[in-house]
Design goal:
Its main location: membrane. With 240 residues, this protein is an all-alpha fold. It is built from ten helices and no strands. Helix 4 packs antiparallel against helix 5, helix 5 packs across helix 9 and helix 9 runs antiparallel to helix 10. The longest helix has 42 residues. The two termini are 24 Å apart.
Length: 240
Amino acid sequence: MERSGTALMWSALAAGLSMGFSFLVQAILEGALPDTGWRHLISSLGYTIGFVFVILGRQQLFTESTLTAVLPVLTRRNFTTLGKTLRLWGIVLVFNLVGTTIFAALLQFKHVFGPEVTTALAEVARAPFSAPFGVTLVRAVFAGWLIALMVWLLPTARSARLATILLVTYTVGVSKLTHVIASSAEAAYAVMIGAVGVGDYFSVFLLPTLIGNMLGGISMVAIINHAAIAPEIDDTRREE
């Protein structure tokens, strides 16, 4: 929250680009596997890749900040901290989305990947548009909940950090939940190949997913988990 706007911008852009690999690797696995009922169980491993790059690389991801930036607001309870949180969210969200859009654009180059991968990319790209507004929103609530829970767990995971990231993000991927940044690479790609319109990107994907992820991250984890430790924080303040 104390970082400069420029530092946040570049870190968020890098995170958006890195998250694009979740889309790409998932499509590569989809294209390499036979069309069976268990293919999704294997290809969802590819969904975890972008999160590993972003989190271990300490890049700025929007859904992580639905926990980390909310806890100081709940603890300090002043407008200065709230303003810093809103600034952080705005910069990170915009440049995460710019990064995923750039990645989707790079995938438009012909003959970089084989025809089976290109076909799989188009199939995976339609996933964010596969459900109505309400269903997408609820899926996004669960995704935001899980990602924020992962952030809550990481400080105590220590040597199990990688396993924690893989376990939680695989759960998001295999459950076909909607993540506003990971899925935005898919959604942008779908727009670029003409599978959906720009309006669908915002109304069918971005709006319900953003709302759901924030509800999941803020209410399910930040507020509830903070409530569990709030009495200890208040006791510490009195002692000081």
